[in-house]
Sequence to fold (706 residues):
Amino acid sequence: MAEYKPIKKVVSGNYAAAYAAKDARVQVVAAYPITPQTSIIEKIAEFIADGEANIQYVPVESEHSAMAACIGASAAGARAFTATSAQGLALMHEMLHWASGARLPIVMVDVNRAMAPPWSVWDDQTDSLAQRDTGWMQFYAENNQEVYDGVLMAFKVAETVNVPAMVIESAFILSHTYDVVEMIPQELVDEFLPPREPLYDLANFEKPFSVGALATPADYYEFRYKLAKAHEEAKKVIREVGREFGERFGRDYSRMIETYRTDDADFVFLGMGSLMGTVKQAVDLLREEGYRVGAAKVLWFRPFPGEELYELAKGVEGIAVLDRNFSFGQEGILFNEAKGVLYNTKARPLMKNYIVGLGGRDFTVSDVRKIAENMKAIIEKGELDVEVDWYHLKR
Amino acid sequence: MEIPENVKKRLSIPAEEHFYAGHTACQGCGASLGLRYVLKAYGKRTIFAIPACCSTIITGAWPYSTLDANLFHTAFETTGAVISGIEAALKARGIKVKGEDGVMIIGWAGDGGTADIGLQALSGFLERGHDAVYIMYDNEAYMNTGIQRSSSTPYGAWTTNTPGGKKHFLEKRHKKKVIDIVIAHEIPYAATASVAYPEDFIKKLKKAQKTPGPSFIQLFAPCPTGWRSPTDKSIELARLAVQTAYFPLFEYENGKYRINMPNPKNEPKPIEEFLKFQGRFKYMTREDVEVLQQWVNHEWEKLKKLAEVFG
Fold:
């Protein structure tokens, strides 16, 4: 094994995604432009034009067709990649089911963007979380480094369990913000991520077969169960791949929930994506002020790491769930999921839902402090003031 | 059944069968004949992409398949996009596509999946120039969902959502000219074909195989269930559609039009000839038939002019 010397580049989140796709040696990219995703596919096109990557590039006429073409490519044995955002992801929705149902390990980067109307191009997790039940795995990146690492790991996990995976980054906060990213030399990526061995191959004519045929009520149910089992299996694979990634490249992803200063915490902030960088910084400041707080970042939302959440919940008095998303008629989606996981366990800390940052509303360290003050008061009193707090609302 | 070599030599189309008996098509189904001919022309080194349509059912429920070739079932509106992706993958993997010794990638979709919901993906496939063949089998309505009109349904035809009632019939639009939309993309090869003329169809399939880039064939395929016609009249109806010039056979090759009618000197028969046996047209009055005849005449004159000027 060659020695790992990272290649440091200052890149945007989108360029980190494009470099990762190139380094993963994707063979087919089918994509459609949409703000703020576009610079991912532009950069990949540039790699091809400059002879730096050998990729079949299909500039399709819609996101629906982008996913359909990736599905065709993946079924025909290629490593396929695409990227999208918000309305584009919504347009793909039907085909997301097709990818997971046909067990195709496509990897896609979704740049989280709020849904219209009203129009917004800014960050919000509602687009990706609305795809929760499509059978795709979901990895939420906090920073540009995690975008790069996430794409490489997503391919490895996806191709092991034959389930597609989404790597999700924030609009503009990551997609267009430049940061240092440590990239991995090609030969080491190749060792980590060998060529794909497809589950089936449409170009093999030895024994003809069909994929996706009609299944009667006598058989359909078992297809769903197998996909459910694949997600269970994926948890193990994710942790193993994350551990291997850490051993090879020094960044450990062996836990699906990354915890930060949670060991002796009275309460923790639970959230996903780029806002957790802000939270970690706030935790350091709050610790200096005497608050015993920690941060817990859900890296993989699907499959959902219930066991890790339980371990976390056992040791704390409260969890402040930060949702940059909302399920109308109910509550924040992560809050809903986390409560659901803990209901049948002995760990039942006070849990409060803070709806933050929708449509790109800024979320700052001082916001975390205010939330911490509120959480502290609730815990002292032993009961919630409100369960769902529209924290940023102009009153 | 083994066909003796001396008989095989006399056959004008391949004797080999790659479409199995025991499929689930209705009696007299034109589409199933079409599938059989496609497989005769291309053999088993073929990848089909089939969207939601009758052929989803005809090709067999899991775990069975009636095709001696690989088949990817896909969503209704995606045929053009899926075959684009399959082609890109094979190219990325260094596998030869199209031509005599290449893998044949076939999009096989009905008229609803092509003329309506799949038109955008078809257009994308055509304009990007992928090496695959798109075959629209045209039975002139959504037959798999139970006979609803598509934009390929002709003027006057009864369907379940364009019924002929006591006062009106609802289908007042003429058949959409999908092949003209396809030709507007200036692809190298496009043609019409009919299941009543298998030799002509297979010749066109072979031409599509040899021509690099995207090819398109619109195959006329009667549906006795949807047309309310006797199951043993399908071939006759498919032949009459051609002979009345309702569905003329022609090719568009690198900018040139060529009409290939079975009897080029014969004037087309009156449209009534095609309408007979078909319950779907029984609501039409003389005036309605005349409206359809005028449309056929106009389109036929247009095609003849095109062949004359760009032949």
